[in-house]
Specification:
By secondary structure, this protein is mainly α. The chain contains five helices and no strands. The radius of gyration is 35 Å and the shape is elongated. The N and C termini lie far apart (98 Å).
Length: 113
């Protein structure tokens, strides 16, 4: 039986077990007399079994229900995309204008004019 459980554990950690095989593992690790070398696995399976019975508190459930049933905010008029585009285009025009002035000034200085 231990050999089968060890093979099932290998398959389980590789993600290749069926639901029936996982059920067999859970049942095996719920027993009291588990071999010493499998004790670390028993703690893991017992944790999973206890986690299945845990439920969120009433306060958390109420908070979640309140947030989910809150009314949606009204329509927000967003001008940020147009205003950002306009600001970017003005900035590019100014940058281009000054770059042209700088280039012209640099060219006249380098030619000795």
């Amino acid at each position: 039986m231990n050999q089968d459980i060890e093979q099932l554990l290998e398959k389980y950690y590789e993600g290749e077990t069926s639901l029936q095989e996982e059920k067999q593992l859970r049942q095996f690790f719920q027993q009291e007399n588990i071999p010493q070398h499998l004790q670390s696995h028993a703690a893991q399976f017992r944790y999973f079994a206890s986690a299945r019975t845990q439920h969120p508190s009433i306060a958390f459930t109420n908070q979640l229900a309140t947030k989910l049933s809150a009314p949606e905010p009204g329509r927000v008029i967003s001008l940020t995309t147009w205003s950002l585009r306009l600001a970017a285009s003005v900035a590019l025009l100014i940058l281009g204008f000054y770059a042209g002035l700088f280039y012209t000034h640099w060219r006249t200085d380098s030619t000795g004019g």
